[in-house]
């Protein structure tokens, strides 16, 4: 059912805070770590993988939840690449 590995990070970007939940999917869904952070705390700088680890989150697979009246969704497909080469595919 899931295309992710055993763990996943769910990020809910709300109006006043961001809620994060790290869950283990197998053998059944189990919450491993969670937290809510004021929007201002994470808007000051983009949270890096190191920052997320400092907050206690350890997975790299994520699902993002965001709502805004002007929000638009576009489906994108990316080729499977070596993790070391992914940064070369991302452009501003």
* Name given to the CATH architecture: 2-Layer Sandwich
**Fraction of residues in helices?**
10-25%
Distance between the termini: 32 Å
CATH class: Alpha Beta
Mean of the pLDDT scores?
A: 76
Order of strands across the biggest sheet? 3-2-1-4
Could you write a compact summary of the structure shown?
This protein is α+β, with helices and mostly antiparallel strands. The chain has three helices and four strands; from the N terminus they run E-E-E-H-H-E-H. The chain has a four-stranded mixed β-sheet with strand order 3-2-1-4.
Describe this structure in words.
Helix content is 16%, strand content 32%. The mean pLDDT is 76. The chain has 92 residues and is of the alpha+beta class. The longest helix has 6 residues, at 49-54. The protein has 3 helices and 4 strands; from the N terminus they run E-E-E-H-H-E-H. It has a single domain, classed as Nucleotidyltransferase, domain 5, CATH 3.30.420. The chain has a 4-stranded mixed sheet.
Task: Give structural attributes.
92 residues; alpha+beta; Nucleotidyltransferase, domain 5; 4-stranded mixed β-sheet; 3 helices; 16% helix; 32% strand
SSE topology sketch:
Layout: E1 7-13, E2 17-24, E3 30-38, H1 39-43, H2 49-54, E4 62-66, H3 86-89
Parallel strand pairs: 1-4
Antiparallel strand pairs: 1-2, 2-3
């Amino acid at each position: 059912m899931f295309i992710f590995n055993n763990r996943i990070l769910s990020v809910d970007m709300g109006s006043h805070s961001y809620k994060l939940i790290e869950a283990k999917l197998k053998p059944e869904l189990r919450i491993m770590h969670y937290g809510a952070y004021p929007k201002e705390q994470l808007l000051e700088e983009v949270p890096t993988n190191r920052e997320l680890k400092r907050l206690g989150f350890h997975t790299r697979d994520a699902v993002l939840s965001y709502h805004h009246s002007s929000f638009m969704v576009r489906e994108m497909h990316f080729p499977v690449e070596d993790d070391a080469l992914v940064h070369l595919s991302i452009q501003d």
